[in-house]
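Researcher: I've been going back and forth with a colleague about how Citrate synthase might be arranged in three dimensions. Neither of us has a model we trust, so I'd like an independent prediction. The organism is Aurantimonas aggregata, in case that matters for your notes. Sequence below.
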Amino acid sequence: MTEQSSRIIVGETEADLELRSGTIGPDVVDVTSLYKKTGLFTYDPGFSSTASCESKITYIDGDEGVLLHRGYPIDQLAERGDFLETCYLLLYGELPTAREKEDFVYRVTRHTMIHEQMSRFYTGFRRDAHPMAVMVGSVGALSAFYHDSTDIADPHQRMVASLRMIAKMPTIAAMAYKYHIGQPFVYPRNDLAYAENFLHMCFAVPCEPYRINPVLARAMDRIFILHADHEQNASTSTVRLAGSSGANPFACVAAGIACLWGPAHGGANEAALNMLTEIGTADRIPEFIARAKDKNDPFRLMGFGHRVYKNYDPRAKIMQQTCHEVLDELGIKDDPLLEVAMELERIALTDEYFIEKKLYPNVDFYSGITLKALGFPTAMFTVLFAVARTVGWIAQWKEMIEDPNQRIGRPRQLYTGAPLRDYVPVDGR
Ligand code: CMC
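Model: Here is an independent structure prediction for Citrate synthase. You can compare it with whatever you and your colleague have in mind.
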């Protein structure tokens, strides 16, 4: 990283600040000394112009629609690699050699079971609980079960916690699903690949054999790759902020899951499918487009728009292709939701409002239809996002903990409340 100086002038106040350049992407003005030098803070509540950290993991060029993990384009990873290879890349910085991959897969596979006591934990939840509520609780509870990997100062424990989390998340998610639908838990099978095992734990029942369909397993694996990491998004920033205080990684990931749940973030795939269902038929699309444009209507086209992408989300292109592959494999010829989705996309991409605001379909637009075809109920969609994103959260958390300059995250504020005033006893108010 190169460093130069830049002069900032605000009214009468001037200060020299460092201008820092990364390997690619815009330069950043390092404002860490701004307050000391000028007595001023910066104000950027949605972090629209703020780089919250330095990172070597993921790069996004939102204008060009580019997403790179450790320099590799997402389409190459999704089309030619597999999810555990992507996990290794995110965690260690390089693609594994054949031997490293074998060892990594072995280590992840040997951690897929969860403590038996944890399965009883589930019965404390209502059956109709949203699976994301169960995820927040049960992932947070991992720190109560794996004390031997919560010392964040120990690199070995950090790595054990990371592998445990990547390995156990599908098991925890599948159990949340099984509990939700009232079926018995299905234990992981170590002879199956990561995505295969997940489908098995979700869809196998004790009374008949479950046959893995390789096309569907590949689609599942691809969905995991597409959601593995996405730079400093809301949930990742939540994990980093929680971790900056020294909290253990299980607790930090539980915080990330809570943040992911919201409809503006991971909850959008569920919301997008609900919206497509509500639209129902292509002839109703203009009505919904008009609502999306109406300033007085809070309605938004779910699965459209992104804080960073002002171009087609590169993940959405692969997701669309995967969606077609899954529907073809399952012989779903005329899925009405897909028809509505494709027509909605066509209309939105040619509409002046969406063009001007650079609102393109994001990854969540087609993932809902694909997950529904795979057999998942909508309530599980964000859970699957959480399973995939766990590696991103954990890689970013590890990077932060291993940064020698790491300090607790402590933003400041612009105070607009009452100025100093004296307490008035209740009988005098
Ligand atoms: N439909 C209609 N108008 C929209 C939409 C949309 N989906 N998204 C943004 N706009 C408009 C918005 O009304 C605003 O208009 P104006 O300038 O006239 O006030 C303008 O576009 C900019 O929107 P913003 O809310 O300032 O942008 P943001 O960067 O704060 O929000 C977003 C990004 C993703 C939250 C937003 O686009 C949105 O709510 N999209 C729908 C939810 C969604 O699909 N989320 C998934 C994101 S991708 C997966 C993930 O990262 O979790």
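Researcher: What would you highlight for our discussion?
Model: I'd start with this: The first helix runs from residue 34 to 38. After that, consider the following. The mean pLDDT is 94.
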